[in-house]
Design goal:
Strand content: 15-25%
Order of helices and strands: EEHEHEHEEHEHEHEHEHEHEEEEE
CATH topology of the largest domain: Rossmann fold
Number of domains: 2
Distance between the termini: 50 Å
Structural class: alpha/beta
Bound molecules: alpha-L-arabinofuranose
Number of helices: 9
Largest sheet: 7 strands, parallel
Helix content: 25-40%
CATH superfamily of the largest domain: Response regulator
Shape: elongated
């Protein structure tokens, strides 16, 4: 099905130099019909990854590139995102781009967009709606694969250092519960725990933020005195967990035989996190690529040219570590190189 979208009535949009307006500011009266209007409902600003993702979208969907972007920050609340979708429908945008905070609960809002004839492009996380016609396409990460890569890295480390599976005592600082990134990465961990006999001591959400990551790790350290691995579902949680570990007088690092606590993470977006990898304070990161702006603008270009985009577009992602002895890992019979990061 090819969507041509709807052009809004002329309007009064308060457009800044980048061409981005907020949902409240955007008017319908003097809209520049030469521009393609996109309503983007973003999850929030919980992490470095998210901020880079927002910038990537704003940069690609700029006035200079032929877009009027109506940006809405959902502040990690699904209800805010549903309200934004309804506002975009009222404003008769040409396209809706949705980065859904969690997977469940979108069918009504997406049906309203479909009824209005507005194509919806999902970005980053998925929705669980059974009717896959409610969205045009999705672009993002294979979160379970990211998790499997990090778990396989840990398994390789155990083999190389003769650490038996039941000596791994791990805690999981989960992301926002019900978000694709949390579901996929947690699923991968649970499968590895069963396969390798690791002991999963506890799991609790750190909501993908540094402050909550620190709070959750402090609590785990008070509860358990034998943690030797912490699986953090993003970089910000990892930085918070490191703060908590050091505040408790313990040391982060891969030498778990000598009492260090190994920090594993996801994203690899911020310089702070990459520096932590180079210095060995974060042992391994499964990359999550935030640069979806050019991908979304290409999808819109394709739709306008009558080209049907792939329904699901998974992006390629690396693994980062400074531990030189593991240069590749294998997941489901596929080999992935590990990028060794040095100071
Ligand atoms: O959905 C992607 C995840 O969301 C990133 O790992 C995390 O940093 C972000 O907040």
């Amino acid at each position: 099905m090819m969507f041509t979208g709807c052009n809004g009535a002329p309007g009064n949009s308060a457009v800044d130099t980048s061409g981005t307006v907020t949902a409240d500011e955007a008017g319908d009266d003097s809209r520049d019909k030469a521009l393609i209007t996109v309503g983007f409902s973003q999850v929030g600003a919980e992490s470095d990854w998210r901020n880079i993702n927002t910038e990537s979208m704003k940069e690609s969907l700029s006035t200079e590139n032929g877009f009027e972007l109506i940006y809405d920050d959902g502040q990690q609340k699904q209800q805010n995102q549903i309200t934004a979708i309804r506002t975009f429908i009222q404003k008769e945008v040409d396209y809706i781009v949705l980065a859904p905070v969690i997977e469940d609960g979108w069918t009504t809002a997406l049906t309203e967009a479909a009824d209005a004839g507005i194509p919806v492009i999902l970005v980053d996380r998925m929705v669980s709606s059974k009717d896959k016609e409610l969205f045009t396409c999705w672009v993002g990460s294979d979160f379970e694969l990211e998790g499997k890569k990090v778990c396989e890295w840990l398994n390789e480390y155990c083999k190389l250092n003769r650490i038996s599976g039941n000596d791994i005592r791990i805690v999981n600082i989960k992301g926002t519960e019900g978000a694709s990134a949390e579901l996929g990465r947690s699923r991968a961990l649970r499968k590895a725990v069963n396969r390798y006999g690791w002991k999963l001591l506890d799991e609790r959400s750190g909501e993908f933020t540094q402050a909550k990551g620190r709070e959750v790790m402090s609590r785990f350290l008070r509860q358990y005195n034998d943690i030797n691995v912490v699986y953090c579902e993003n970089d910000n949680e990892a930085i918070g967990a490191i703060e908590a570990i050091e505040a408790a007088g313990k040391t982060v690092g891969c030498n778990i035989k000598n009492g260090e606590i190994m920090v594993l993470a996801f994203d690899g977006s911020s310089e702070q996190a990459l520096e932590a990898v180079r210095s060995g304070r974060i042992t391994c990161i499964g990359e999550c690529n935030p640069l979806h702006g050019p991908r979304v603008s290409k999808i819109i270009e394709d739709l306008r040219n009558g080209v049907t985009p792939e329904k699901y577009e998974y992006v390629d992602e690396d693994i980062f570590s400074s531990y030189e002895k593991i240069t590749e890992i294998s997941v489901d019979d596929k080999v992935y190189p590990v990028e060794i990061m040095k100071q």
